[in-house]
Amino acid sequence: MLFILTEEGAITMNGAKRARKTSWGMLLMGLALAVMMAACSNNGGGNGAGTASPGNTGVNSGTPEETGGNEDEEIAPEEGAKLVVWEAKEQLAYMQQVGAAFEEQFGVPVTVEEVAGGDQGGRLATDGPSKLAADVLTLPHDQIGLAVTAGLLLPNDLFEEETRANMVEAAVTASTYDGILYGYPKSVETYGMFYNKDLLPEAPQSWDDVIAFANTHNDPKQNKYAIMWEFVGYYSYPFIGSFGGYIFGDDNMNPNDIGLNNEGAVKGFTYLQSLRDILPMNAGDVTYDVKTQLFQEGKLALNIDGPWSVSAFKDKVNFGVAPLPQTPDGQPSMSFSGVKSYYVNSYSNYPIAARLFANFASSKENQLKNFEMTGAIPANIEAGEDPAIKNDPITSGFFQQFQNSVPMPSISQINSVWDPLKAAFISLWDDAGLDAKQTLDQMVTTIKADIASK
């Protein structure tokens, strides 16, 4: 069966990693109320005239159920389709190559426009209803909730089965909102364990291995330490999720179910307190700058950090990246992760062509090309198993850790969590006499009160 459509289809972290983020929630909340009255123009990213709203559920939506199709049947772009794709400066050359390849295969011209990654969500909110936005854009997973609520995104329906089969589970979960898959995973990031190969030819496999090494390496008078991590909520998750705790229930979508003081979380933070001997410093003294300098100087052997810090060590340290140390009972340590995915603008006049492009751009081959050109870590399972990734001493470690990660919560209530979690993290570390259960109970009470006040 051939799918041909001629009308438009219808169908974020405080105190976390050191990355830039642009707030656009207010734009989206306002748009959610006004979206049905938005005017539609005849130019811009929508590529032509059209009057259907994103709430349209008629035959023009092009969903498999409505057309009787499925992923095994042939899918073709609309006649005369042309697309606009937004891409950040650092990936512009890559996306231009993908666009050219897509046009060659499908006959659909693709115009790539430079829009900063942090600005694409806000631009979609303001320009989408007036058809000035791109047909396809990239969003971090913690921005999709508000975009979906405002009716700005089309579900990934035509390629859902393919996406679920080909992408790492955490990437699929991160690209899903309220049980519906919207994204086409593009790249992933999480933190891992940088290790100095001159001090440790092989990375430690467990916390027991780290402790044993620390007993021979640590020399605080010489600023020599085995391992460091920043004492912010983002990096505390291994001591939560690895032991049976969690932030919110239902895949971090239910703020009424907080798992930060359950039996697992208490066990994890109690274990954290036991590690004080291998890092005899107060939490406030372990900053990003301190541990970065010590790792560069060869005094810090293990540094828990993310791919955003790789450039600080290249050509300065002989290092690799490995997954986080296993828990005492041999379980993988769980980290927080972030996922960037392609999304289709619900106001696109060419929703089938846009879906085809998003799926095409997220293929194994194109994710490997993205890695080759920009260093972006793939979300595709087979791409992660490719020799280009597996044999890379840095990227392979992050990809392995991502497979044991949980996407950062994307609901707004997470903003009530970061500061109390950081405070508990620091208090339990600095004062070994504090009772973990009592401290975590107080923290959860604070979180609930803040959520209720908003």
UniProtKB/TrEMBL annotation:
GO terms assigned for molecular function: carbohydrate transmembrane transporter activity; maltose binding
Region of interest (Disordered), residue spans: 49-76
CDD domains named in the record: PBP2_Maltose_binding_like (cd13586)
Keyword Transcription regulation: no
Primary site of residence: membrane
Signal peptide: none
InterPro entries according to UniProt: Maltose/Cyclodextrin-bd, SBP
Keyword terms, alphabetized: Cell membrane, Lipoprotein, Membrane, Signal, Sugar transport, Transport
Membrane topology: Lipid-anchor
Homology family: Belongs to the bacterial solute-binding protein 1 family.
Identification of the protein by name: Maltodextrin-binding protein
